[in-house]
Design a protein that fits this description.
With 321 residues, the chain is of the alpha/beta class. The protein is built from 11 helices and 8 strands. Strand 7 (236-238), helix 9 (247-258) and strand 8 (269-271) form a beta-alpha-beta unit.
């Protein structure tokens, strides 16, 4: 596993934390459970914008994304007092599961078990997802997971998505102790966005477990746009595509959301995606200059160094992801 080298890499990951196939959109629509009409989503969660950690901007799908990293982040949250500041969620993103058959990394196993349940990658998470959730809960934190409202998630390795498996996946997540679901938009087969996201809303509600529901529709469909219907469906909704690690991207997303504030409030928030406090390459160069001027050993290593508060400090997560 690559050593955790730079605080900026993890700081950028602090968060509030389709190609058409043979089947037609009509056929896929039939597979999605018809949602029961609801006046609004009210699950008692996200009374303020959720804050925490998501690994994607730090690790993406690389090998250092594993249970050792995630447990270390939970420990660092406690050690550095972030939990008391409101950083509650330790979330894992895409690539936590076993790939579907026929993908580049897996040609013999299925992405689900014989009962159709998602299976965690045994290399990344040898102790299993329930054990990871317990570890995080034991530290007074909450655990989040990722999937997509499509046949596969967004990563090209080929991980099974939730389309047509809404209640089964929701039941599994609840049994694992999941507190937060990030539900992406890839490989959606052209099925109506509200149909897909309401199906998972109702599936989560049926489990009886409070699970913060993060809609990642990117603001692509409509009218009506996701910020116009999101409060009835989720606790937060992405309003744009992915952020990039530069100032222009961050400030453009911030300004785009200026006019959407009226749609947000306790329990339902516009999602700005991750905060990107600095350009990582620029901060690396600046750190090298500081290190040359400063005698003695480098700062703390590992997860302590990763979450060490530097100039700029720990950033608030978005109304996000």
């Amino acid at each position: 596993m690559r050593r955790l080298r730079r605080p900026s890499a993890i700081l950028t990951a602090l968060v509030t934390v389709a190609a058409a196939g043979a089947l037609t959109a009509v056929a896929w629509t039939a597979l999605v459970a018809r949602p029961t009409p609801a006046i609004a989503l009210e699950n008692g969660l996200a009374r303020t914008p959720p804050m925490g950690f998501n690994n994607w901007n730090f690790t993406q799908c690389r090998s250092e994304f594993n249970e050792t990293l995630v447990r270390g982040i939970a420990d660092a949250f406690v050690r550095h007092g972030l939990r008391e500041l409101g950083y509650q969620y330790v979330n894992i993103d895409d690539c936590w599961a076993r790939p579907k058959p026929g993908s580049a990394s897996d040609t013999t196993q299925t992405g689900r078990d014989a009962n159709g349940n998602l299976v965690a990658d045994p290399v990344r998470f040898p102790s299993g997802i329930p054990a990871l959730a317990r570890y995080i809960h034991d530290r007074g934190l909450k655990f989040g997971i990722y999937t997509s409202a499509g046949t596969k998630t967004c990563n090209t390795l080929g991980f099974s998505g939730g389309l047509g498996h809404e209640q089964q996946d929701a039941n599994l997540f609840a049994s694992w102790g999941v507190d937060y679901l990030k539900y992406d938009n890839c490989n959606n087969q052209g099925v109506d966005a509200q149909t897909r996201y309401k199906a998972m809303r109702d599936a989560l509600r049926n489990t009886g477990r409070p699970i913060l529901y993060s809609i990642v529709e990117w603001g692509r469909t409509g009218p009506p746009k996701v910020w116009e219907w999101g409060a009835d469906v989720g606790n937060m909704w992405r309003t744009t595509g992915d952020i990039s690690a530069n100032w222009t991207s961050m400030i453009n997303i911030t300004h785009f959301n200026d006019d959407l504030a009226r749609f947000a409030g306790p329990g339902h928030w516009n999602d700005h995606q991750h905060h990107q406090p600095v350009d990582e390459h620029a901060q690396r160069a600046a750190q090298r200059r500081r290190d040359r001027r400063r005698p003695g050993p480098a700062g703390p290593a590992g997860h302590d160094r990763v979450l060490q508060q530097r100039s700029g400090g720990v950033q608030q997560g978005p109304r996000q992801r």
